[in-house]
Amino acid sequence: MEQTTSDRVELGEIIEQAERFRTRVLTGDPDGVEVLGVEMLALDDLARATRGSLVIATLPTAEAPRAYQIDIAVRRTISSGAAVLVLTGDVTLSETSRTLARRGALVILGADAAPSELAVFVDRLVRRGAAGALSRAEHAIEAVSRAADAGTDDIRTVVLEVASAALSVDVHIDEVPGVRWSDADAVCIGEVPIGRLVAARDDPAVSIARPVIASVLSRALSRETQDRFGPVRSRADLIVELLFAESSRIDGLAVDAARAGLPVQLSHSVAWLIPRVPDDRERRVPPSLVAALEVRALQLVDDRDETWHVAAFHDDLLIVASEELGAADHQRRLRDVVERFVEQAAVLVGTEWTFTMGLGTPQSGAGGLRQSATEARIAAESAVAGGRLGAVEVTDVTGLRRVLLDFYASPLSRTLLDDVLAPLDALGPERAETSVRTLLAYLSTRNSLARAAEILTLHPNAVNYRIRRIEQTLELELDDPDVRFALELACRLRLVSSR
Description:
Layout: E1 3-10, H1 11-17, E2 24-27, E3 34-42, E4 53-58, H2 67-80, E5 84-88, H3 95-103, E6 107-111, H4 115-127, H5 130-150, H6 155-167, E7 171-174, E8 186-189, E9 192-199, H7 204-244, H8 250-259, E10 267-276, H9 287-301, E11 307-313, E12 316-323, H10 330-349, E13 354-359, E14 363-364, H11 365-385, E15 392-394, H12 400-408, H13 411-425, H14 429-444, H15 449-456, H16 460-474, H17 481-498
Parallel strand pairs: 3-4, 4-5, 5-6, 13-15
Antiparallel strand pairs: 1-3, 2-6, 7-9, 8-9, 10-12, 10-13, 10-14, 11-12
Helix pairs in contact: 2-3, 4-5, 5-6, 5-7, 6-7, 7-8, 9-10, 12-17, 13-17, 14-15, 14-16, 14-17, 15-16
């Protein structure tokens, strides 16, 4: 049953892909040995084997051959110039056979398979045709399926390594944007594509196996993600509800969160990220990509000591770092992680997207979580409103701005102070902002026209003219201390929130 081909295959590849036949090296070095064909011959006919072939010895009976018979078979195979001798069944080589094989540069393999089945398998590989490609693909799929069933810790790395070894080509995930979950080579977590499965080179076997390997890997990653991040992602819903619930519900939600494993008693620092495309402010990240970003953020913090949660609110993302009260560099470590996340997120959604980041100060308890999230959201939204897409806005740990933001977190406070400035807002955005800045400069200098003029780089008469018009528009008496206090607070709050 001689088969030859000009497209040579190495013995190491055959051994690797014939794993299911328990093919093993009994003696000799398979590295660099080329196999030109495959034959099945009886022990007495091994001298007729073709040079460079892999010859499978067939036995006349079911009994294992004796040591002297194997010695004779080895001598005959060497004399023929065959490259490999395969002995099936439970065979033990004598020292004489090993010595003969080493002198004759003959590799001897053992295998647990019917000679005809093994011959057909090797023939497919050696011929390198459609049958060979199918055989390699089947081997790769079987190997990957076994690796996925094993349920190891780093399933992604294990499956890719097994696939690469089985196909004899590097296989990896290319995390490029724009991959659809329906693509044949898409690797997904659930229905969220994280990239496509690619190989260093394409051949028929790779083309056949790649969609199946991508599917197996996707299911394995989905299971691993659910096992690892399922509880954390379920707590994310509680975080969003806690942040936006009425104040009267905080205590009850905090109890629910604690029961679910959310450490509300710790100190929390929140990062609020707003993704936008500079040339299209109305464009929003598709929900599927928001889910992919959540998973990527969780993967990024999985091995860190702090307690982390990631939540999505519409198309914005919240990343929460929780630690013991008073932990050093709490906000800085949150920023480091989020900046790394932004770098990796560009791979998923594309470099056209920017992520504007607002960082809240570390605050303790359920109320502190709300406070830090409010600071972060206002900082991020202010940067977006000011045209600073992609900026990082940090809330100061101490100072007036923090106090104002705390005050601004109350819907009632915002409503009352916005009502005070409503007459100025009716003038239009530009005139309203100019009026607010002029009024704040005047009130913060105890109604000094000269000092306000220095701040605004205007002539005192110009400041006086503006103040008189503002006073008429607001219909308020600026000499009244209570009025001055309320107006200055409203102006500072307006500028802080818009800054």
